[in-house]
Amino acid sequence: MTALFLRDLKLSIRAGGGALIGVLFFLTVVAVIPFGVGPDLKLLSRIGPAIVWIGALLAALLGLDRLFQAERDDGSLDLMLMQDTPLVLTVLVKCFAHWTATSLPLVIASPLLGLFMNMDETAIGATALTLLVGSPAITFIGAVGAAVAVALPRGSLLVSILVLPLTIPVLIFGVSATYAAVEDPAPFLPPFLILIALTLFFAVIGPAAAALALRNTAD
């Protein structure tokens, strides 16, 4: 499993720029917002957490279609299906490797983009924390879409269409927890705990559903 994690980590970084492409796309999405809303610093500060979360969500979708594509192209997907190691565990390790290579750099870059959006220290810290907790759920959801679309000719577009609606609850509670940390009357803990629960839920459901989809695709 360690060898699989390191292999997938290297492939994710090499394929299409990996983490660098995601961070650049993240930066581009957040950077164009001030040009659209104007030089209102108070408005930027108010909408900043939501914009950072939306940018991170869209950037995290990049590369999800390649989660199982390399194994499909070189035939190692058949070996994954026949090995003694449970396929669910293999998918889980691949999800962690993909998250480490693509989503973790977005979490690290989010404080810098928070400064760009004129967010204060509390909002920046809350945004980074919620992204760290909530972004794995996006990868687990994306694994299901990638497994369903792995054998389709235009699977990359289908993955985004399948995954994006399912990630809306993660986005809602991630942004809600961030705003709750900034606004004193609103409690931070309830939406944050729900965000953790969503990640744990999809950590169980996502790999299992992806493994089932891969087996059906092979059949």
Automatic annotation (TrEMBL):
Query: Which residue ranges run through the membrane?
Result: 12-37, 43-64, 85-108, 128-150, 157-182, 188-214
GO CC annotation, single: plasma membrane
Q: Give the coiled coil ranges.
A: none
InterPro entries found in the cross-reference section? Cyt_c_biogenesis_CcmB, Cyt_c_CcmB_bac
Its membrane topology: Multi-pass membrane protein
Q: Which UniProt keywords apply?
A: Cell inner membrane, Cell membrane, Cytochrome c-type biogenesis, Membrane, Transmembrane, Transmembrane helix, Transport
The UniProt GO MF terms for this protein read: heme transmembrane transporter activity
Places the protein is found? Cell inner membrane
Superkingdom per UniProt:
Bacteria
GO biological process, alphabetically ordered:
cytochrome c biosynthetic process; cytochrome complex assembly
Q: Name one Pfam family in it.
A: CcmB
Q: Which family does it belong to?
A: Belongs to the CcmB/CycW/HelB family.
Role description:
Required for the export of heme to the periplasm for the biogenesis of c-type cytochromes.
Identify this protein by name. Heme exporter protein B
Task: Look up and give the organism this protein is from.
Answer: Rhizobium leguminosarum bv. trifolii WSM2297
